[in-house]
Amino acid sequence: MSAAGLTDVWDAPDDADDLDAAEDRDAAARAEAAGHTRGRRVLVIPDGLAERPGPLGTTLSSVKPMALNAVARRGAVRRVATTPEGLQPGSEVGLPTLLGWAPTGVVSRGRIDAAAHGLDEPRGAVVHRVDVRHDDGRPWPELAPSALTLLRGLDEALHVEHLSAHRFLVWGHRTPTLPRRLDLDDLGSAHGVAGTHDPDDLPRFQLWPDGIEPPPILDEDTVVVCAPRSTMAGVARLMGAATVHPAGATGRPGTSVAAKARAAVSLLRDGIHTVVVHVGSPDEAAHARDPQAKRLEMQKIDRDLIAPLAAVVLDLGATLAIVPDHGTDPRTGEHLADPVPGVLWGPGVRSSGPDRVTEEAVAQAPVVSSPWRMD
Ligand SMILES: [Zn+2]
User: Fold this and answer.
1) Residue 154 clears pLDDT 80, i.e. is over it
2) Residues 189 and 259 in one domain
3) Ligand 1 centroid – CA 281 distance (Å)
4) CATH number at residue 223
5) What single-letter DSSP state applies at residue 242?
6) How far, in Å, is the centroid of ligand 1 from the Cα of 168?
7) Final residue of a structural domain among 153, 172, 207
């Protein structure tokens, strides 16, 4: 910043008040992130795991997770509000909320993805994530080359980056007007993509709104174990936490949960204060409308992650919290904003609430706003 810029800030009382208010908010968020727990602690986030109770039951009520239930019997079981009032549910909202910063407006998925991929958008740029999808919302990664061609032809002042599969990042001086879906269909067909030219399934672009980004309220005493280039990685970096990406951690069904458990255990034993383990696969299975795959992922999380972590947490006298970032219905593939079932177990945490972590069991449980404050 130039000397003139500094003078502008310090000479303007309104700006100084705004800065004070922003610092107060950040200090409050840091205190919230610290919570009421003592000593080392670990937070497991099974992405999109929660559901809405119904006649078919939910993933949590149908798998009967032994390790999770054992933790529930000893800990405090509550509902956790991970989607602030008025916001759309999603990881860009739920993950920062669980890490101690509850957004007050639309969160920019594009800015989080840029951080996850190590990209630095220019100051003042408008940043959007753009996806290419089937008419019913399923991703359509086979159309990525056609989508890239069309997006790059929009406006030479716009920067277009292919992130992975069906995901793109577009930034520039304004919100882009996206290419027509008929043009995407035509180009995809010319490229020989199966399924194009079906009038009942025209491909479409999805534009994620730009917005605010999570503030740097954490430091390297918080280490987040997650898949590389994931939403969790982007949120962690923007909030100032360190990240660890074990080999085999992909965020998709089939991801190595055991590798994440081993990484988390060694971080806890090394004395890291807060370890966060994110598993993206339940959400991915639900978006693929595959309830069976979602159940298998939950069984794996219970056996390969929660069971070994619970043993180490007991050994170290640490605290364990298990809370999804939001719900995702495996029949519709849609996110849910309802408070999610969660559990906290550790020294000083009273055994209270239902003895299982299911949507049905917590229906009457109190709603809390932090994974570290379940009393
Ligand atoms: Zn999702």
Assistant:
1) yes
2) no
3) 10
4) 3.40.720.10
5) E
6) 16
7) 207
